[in-house]
Amino acid sequence: MDLLEYQGKQLFARHGIPVPSGKPARTVEEAVAAADEIGYPCAVKAQVQIGGRGKLGGIKIAANKDEAREHAQAILGMDIKGLTVYEVWIEGASQIASEYYASVVFDRSAKAPLVMLSTKGGMDIEAVADEDPDAIAHLHVDALIGFQDFHGRQLAFDAGVDADVVRPIGAFLKQLYNTFVAEECLLVEVNPLIITPERTLTALDAKVTLDNNSLFRHKDNAELRDLSAEDPQEKMAHDRGLTYVKLDGNIGILGNGAGLVMSTLDVVKGAGGEPANFLDAGGGSKAEAITSAVEVILSDSKVEAVLFNIFGGITRCDEVANGLIEAFSQLNPSVPFVVRLDGTNDKEGRQILAEANLPNVYTEATMDGAAAKVVELAKAHHA
Amino acid sequence: MDLLEYQGKQLFARHGIPVPSGKPARTVEEAVAAADEIGYPCAVKAQVQIGGRGKLGGIKIAANKDEAREHAQAILGMDIKGLTVYEVWIEGASQIASEYYASVVFDRSAKAPLVMLSTKGGMDIEAVADEDPDAIAHLHVDALIGFQDFHGRQLAFDAGVDADVVRPIGAFLKQLYNTFVAEECLLVEVNPLIITPERTLTALDAKVTLDNNSLFRHKDNAELRDLSAEDPQEKMAHDRGLTYVKLDGNIGILGNGAGLVMSTLDVVKGAGGEPANFLDAGGGSKAEAITSAVEVILSDSKVEAVLFNIFGGITRCDEVANGLIEAFSQLNPSVPFVVRLDGTNDKEGRQILAEANLPNVYTEATMDGAAAKVVELAKAHHA
Amino acid sequence: MSILIDKNTRLVTTGITGSEGRFHTLRNRDYGTNVVAGVTPGKGGQDVDGIPVFNTIAEAVDKQGANTAMIFVPPPFAADSILEAEEAGIELIIAITEGIPAHDELRAFQVIKKNGRSRLVGPNCPGILSPDKANVGIIPATFFKPGNVGVVSRSGTLTYQVGNELALSGFGNSSIVGIGGDPVPGTDFIDVIGLFQDDPETELIVMCGEIGGDAEEKAAEFIGEHVTKPVVGYIAGFTAPPGKQMGHAGAIVSGSHGTAAAKAQALEAKGVRVGRTPTQVAQIAMEILGK
Amino acid sequence: MSILIDKNTRLVTTGITGSEGRFHTLRNRDYGTNVVAGVTPGKGGQDVDGIPVFNTIAEAVDKQGANTAMIFVPPPFAADSILEAEEAGIELIIAITEGIPAHDELRAFQVIKKNGRSRLVGPNCPGILSPDKANVGIIPATFFKPGNVGVVSRSGTLTYQVGNELALSGFGNSSIVGIGGDPVPGTDFIDVIGLFQDDPETELIVMCGEIGGDAEEKAAEFIGEHVTKPVVGYIAGFTAPPGKQMGHAGAIVSGSHGTAAAKAQALEAKGVRVGRTPTQVAQIAMEILGK
Question: What is the pTM of this model?
Answer without folding.
Answer: 0.92
